[in-house]
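Changelog entry: the Radical SAM protein record was regenerated in this release. Current contents:
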Amino acid sequence: MAALAPAARPARRWTPRRVVATPAALEHPHGRRIVARVEALGIEVERLRANRLTGVRGQTDRETYARAKSTLAIVVSPPARRTLQPIAPSADWRFDLAEGCPAHCQYCYLAGSLTGPPVTRVYADLDGILAGLADYAGRGTVTSRSAARVEEGTTFEASCYTDPLALEHLTGSWRRAVEHFAAWDAPVQLRWTTKYADVDTFVGLPHAGRTRVRFSVNAAPVSERMEGGTATVPDRLAALRRLALDGYPVGLTVAPIIAVPDWRREYGLLLDQVVTAVAGVPELDLTAELITHRFTPGSREVLLGWYPRTRLEMDEATRRRKYGKFGAVKYVYPREVMTELRTWFERELVERVPACRILYWT
Ligand code: SF4
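Regenerated structure tokens:
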């Protein structure tokens, strides 16, 4: 069976058109490391005079979007980010090594979360960020951990506002995080989700089984038409296989699950690819997180501005309103559709990939 698994291909890598570094970022060793890394790739780094990023806005919203999406800024993280927030159901705590992503997913969840032009900012104060996590070890938030996850220790999510493998070749940040968690003298787990496949620098790293990399995957009508700039799903699954063979716990983030025409067949074909990708992996530790498509009035407006010709269905009239903790509305699938999707996924995953543990459905 293993011979049928997808072969690894050279990973797709983002080359920013403009890279800038703030003076504050250059005061940090990791900021200087990122600059050296980027320059070694033959990309010029513009040293800004002040800590404010300028020159991103264009004449039109489209131009601003295009400029921002092709800009990498090396900055210091905002002070508020040092106070970690719980991030159930994915993990106990979230922390950030970057904000923004160079890909162009038409449903991107960042659209409703981040404000301003979508520049990718990577954080120079990595050493301080990692050191600050120590205060949170042992402080699991009960809501985010079922009994089945207790052995993971305190979990830290590092991909809330970015895609780590889209940026690792430019920063080296997540590799250092893997090593930091491996050497940590406490039961902890680092987690992130990605739509990229660039795992070369992670294979062979001393990870101590403390990092779970989840690959965000989707049915072909979604991944091929709505996820511009990302790695293909076969490449993501080949990367998952490489990490699993290297002893990493791995995962699938099936998100966003969209009720496309003939969705049972389309998602069935995706699960068939997963079966092939994990075939013959010894001591496979595989989880699944199942997240249905949703949008807010704000994210819908931003996304329609970014992708005016999108074929992504965001019709409030066909959705159910759901209210968050602070009264914010989001639009999810109606109950009948949710039940059909959930029943199908939970049954098919268990049948086709019995080793896979489903962490949650939302
Ligand atoms: Fe947004 Fe994730 Fe796509 Fe990046 S990979 S554009 S963060 S959905």
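Residues 101, 103, 105, 108-110, 163, 195, 230 surround iron/sulfur cluster (CB under 6 Å).
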